[in-house]
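Input record (one chain):
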Amino acid sequence: METNDRLMDADELLAALNELLEAERAGVRVALAGRKTASTETMDAFMTRLRDDEARWCAMLAGQIERLGGSASSQCGAFYDKVMALDGTVQRLSLLNRGQGWVVRRLEALIPRVEDEVLRADLREMADSHVENIAATDQVILDMRSGAA
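The corresponding structure, as predicted from the sequence alone:
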């Protein structure tokens, strides 16, 4: 096994899960802010679905951290401030999508290094969900740019 392919020790795994938890928490906050500024029912529904999905992964990660004997972070990732510093929904959604892509890349690197089958399955489902969210967000951005949203 190469160094990057070795299984993670407990401390390293808990740190990675907490990093993801903080990122997901930032995603929840971005989606909540997006709901507050949504100009259409369609955008409100989209942001609600996104918020609910991000919150689902926060709950999963916090539960897994606790199950593995760790303490779930209560912090929110700095990503929230970066997104909110932007003007305009398209710009915010574009950065949010880049953040979702970061989560997918992080998960793809993490999953092979996780021995726990239950956690690995949850992380795989989380990665797949984020890929779906990226596609949905790309479509919303396209619709907004074309005037369809």
